[in-house]
Amino acid sequence: MDEGYAQLRDRLESFLSEHLAGLENDERVEALAWYCQGLGLEVPDKTVFGIASRLAPDATQAVRQRMQRALQRSRFSHDAVFERIQCTVFTHAADRLEAYCVDDTGFEKKGEHSVGVQRQYSGTLGKVGNCQIAVSLHGVSDDFSTCLGARLYLPESWTESAERMERADVPQGTAFQTKAQIALELLNAAKSQGAPKRPVVADAGFGDNSDFRDAIVALGFHYVVAVSSQMNVWPPGASPSVPSPNGKRGRPATRVRDANGDAPIRIDKLAAQLWEQGLFRQHTWRQSSRGPLRSDFCAVRVHSAERRTKGKSAGPSIWLLIERDSTQKTGFRYYLSSLPSTTSVRALARLGKMRWRIERDYQDMKQKLGLDQYEGRSWGGFHRHFAMVALVHAFLSLHRESFSPAEPLHPVDLAGFSSSPA
After folding, report:
1. Is the confidence at residue 42, as pLDDT, over 90?
2. In this predicted model, what pLDDT tens digit does every residue of 284-293 receive, in sequence order?
3. Residue 3 in this model has a pLDDT that exceeds 60
4. Hey, which bits of 63-166 come out as E strands?
5. Beta-strand pair 99-108/291-304
6. Which of 40, 88, 136, 299 sits 20 to 30 Å CA-CA off 400?
7. High-pLDDT (> 70) share of the chain, %
8. Spatial distance between the Cα atoms of 102 and 48, rounded to a whole number of angstroms
9. Radius of gyration of the chain (CA)
């Protein structure tokens, strides 16, 4: 370790003080600091009771109640914690951010009373199950990542039930939002805190949404997002547009067409053609502990054909990045990007593949910091728990070199790093 134990303890105490001070009264801030410390314990049970049992074996119930009240009954919004995390990251680690990643993660639950729970598809579960789903925004690079914002997704079955919303203490006026809309609000909130301009990366669950992609550009960011194989594009070289009125009688043309007669093509069919033409080249997209990770890629400039029947222009030229991947049903993976035409294929590939970092964050936050072990049912409690996990995760990410040069979140027991309950 590059620093002594006492130095790290002082750093943690200062970090928690800076990010928690003034959110609530001193007693609850102290309880939140205990909770953050407990999330870093090397114990399997990271519920409020499990943390209290470890921190204060002689006063477990009293400490449990204080931490539980701080999470469930505090008046501060979790957004205030994320604003402080953003300020720290954007001030001290902006050069370590290469992209922003948005995604969602599921929390398997029993019963129907935990806020936002219902039977729904979760990529985390890999199936339809009884769960909660949260959307989060992370700042990422190949060797750094931290959670910059999160919000629970509320299905319409919840937003349409005033009784359920009131019982779970969901703020009045909270309306249904899609996951993409939540992600855009998180990105906009980060922008308002001075987020440096970096590309946004996301999976096809977000990337297939043209409104989502357009909104990213409207916010002043570029994107590199995965898309599904069924998407249609105008092939390279096409110049699609709505034909001008020709003065003839009848309804004017509204369908986008190409002057040379080219028709839209599904990207899986285009990928097969480009592969047969031998246009793919191998690129290294990341150096891992096991050596360089490489794939075959091809990138071409295209126009989206998603709105060709709605009388709207085809939009600007964008990148279609195709990765040869034999594990996929079609043999390929696909990405769209608004980055400039001068961007290299290798840079596109690195960014397209960088979503692995958010999956690593979810794994670390759940397995090592107890993100999926919260037992409360209320809106505020869930979000404040998520914010405390993100706060500890940010501390570990910002001080990773002090724990392990090789692993972003090597197991570390934070017991004793800050003031424990007597």
Report:
1. no
2. 999 888 889 9
3. no
4. 99-108, 118-122, 127-141, 144-153
5. unpaired
6. 136
7. 88
8. 28
9. 24
Query: What single DSSP character describes residue 47?
Result: S
For 365-405, the pLDDT digits (tens) are 999 999 999 999 999 999 999 999 999 999 999 987 655 54
pLDDT tens digits for 152-206? 999 999 999 999 999 999 999 999 999 999 999 999 999 999 999 999 999 999 9
DSSP H/E element including 179: helix 179-192
User: Which CA distances in Å does 39 have to 66, 390, 419?
Assistant: 15, 10, 14
Amino acid at 94: A
59 Cβ contact partners less than 8 Å away, ≥ 6 residues apart: 421, 422
- Fill in the amino acid letter for 395: F
pLDDT of residue 124: 87
C-alpha distances in Å from residue 298, one per residue of 111, 301, 376: 47, 10, 48
| CB contact at 8 A, 353 and 294 | no
Secondary structure of 231-270 as H, E, C letters = CEEECCCCCEECCCCCCCCCCCCCCCEECCCCCCEEHHHH
pTM of the predicted model as reported, rounded to 2 decimal places: 0.91
DSSP sequence for 204-215? HHHHT-HHHHHH
- pLDDT band at 325; cut points 50, 70, 90: confident
The amino acid present at 269, given as its one-letter code, is K
Mean pLDDT of the chain: 89
In the structure encoding, which two tokens stand for residue 297, read together?
């890629």
State how far the Cα of 124 lies from the Cα of 139, in Å rounded to an integer.
20
Residue 50's Cβ-side half-sphere holds a number of Cα atoms within 13 Å equal to 16
Q: How far apart are CA 416 and CA 414, in angstroms?
A: 6
Kindly state the tokens that stand for 186. Answer: 């998180």
Confidence of residue 330 (pLDDT cuts 50, 70, 90): confident
pLDDT of residue 414: 55
Distance between CA atoms of residues 267 and 204, nearest Å: 14
User: Can you say how many angstroms the Cα of residue 174 is from the centroid of all Cα atoms in its chain?
Assistant: 21
Distance CA 65, CA 33 (A): 14
Check if the beta carbon of residue 265 is closer than 8 Å to that of residue 235.
yes
